[in-house]
Amino acid sequence: MGGVAGMRGRQTVRGMIQSLAVILVAAGVMYYFIPHDEDANPVQVKDYRVELLTAQRAAPYPVLAPEGLGGDWKATVVSYNREQGDTWRLGFLDPDTQYVALYQSTSEPKKFVPDVTQRAKDSGKTQTVAGQVWQRWEGPHYDALVRTDGEATTVVTGTASFERLAEMAGSLRAGKAA
User: How far from chain centre, in Å, is Cα 133?
Assistant: First the structure.
């Protein structure tokens, strides 16, 4: 009798292990095929029109903002800081979810540009975008397009490709928000 009970116990344990394996496989398949949000904090899209109008009134230079970019460009960061060189900042996620930021400031370019580009350096190359010549800066984290007009330096920088940076630079206009 003891032999039959022992055999039945092993079969029960084996059956439980097999059932557990089937459940785990089913759970894995469900996890794979059911959509789920990888990012617990979805991107907060900003309407920057009020900040843009404020910056345009306060800044001693023509404040730029993009016009005509598609709806797949999402504004995520906006600020204007008078105390730090009248710095205007507008950050976006591009259609490839890469970061692209516009900065303008009257701060000293030799310090300002490396700061906002996370230590990018002037490559010595230029790129013409919409008839304007921009300096190409390259860095370990961000690349950038940079130009100085009068007292203000404009920087288009981020993790995006130079093609996307140029798309942003080419859309920049002084005036009201898009």
Answer: 24
Q: Is 166 left (phi over 0), alpha (psi -120 to 50) or beta?
A: alpha
- Residue 99's identity, in one-letter code, is Y
Task: Give me the residue label for tokens 């109008």.
Answer: 53
Q: Taking the CA atoms of 51, 150, 161 and 121 in sequence, report the sign of the dihedral they define.
A: negative
Start-to-end CA distance of the chain, whole Å, equals 85
Which of these, 169, 159, 163, lies nearest to 99 by C-alpha position? 159
Q: What tens digit of pLDDT does each residue of 27-57 get? A: 655 555 565 555 545 678 889 999 999 999 9
What are the tens digits of pLDDT across the range 99-136?
999 999 999 999 999 999 999 999 999 999 999 999 99
The identity of residue 85, as a single letter, is G
Give the model's pLDDT for residue 24: 64
pTM of the model: 0.75
Do residues 161 and 98 lie in contact, with contact meaning Cβ atoms separated by under 8 Å?
yes
Residue 100: both structure tokens together: 């692209």
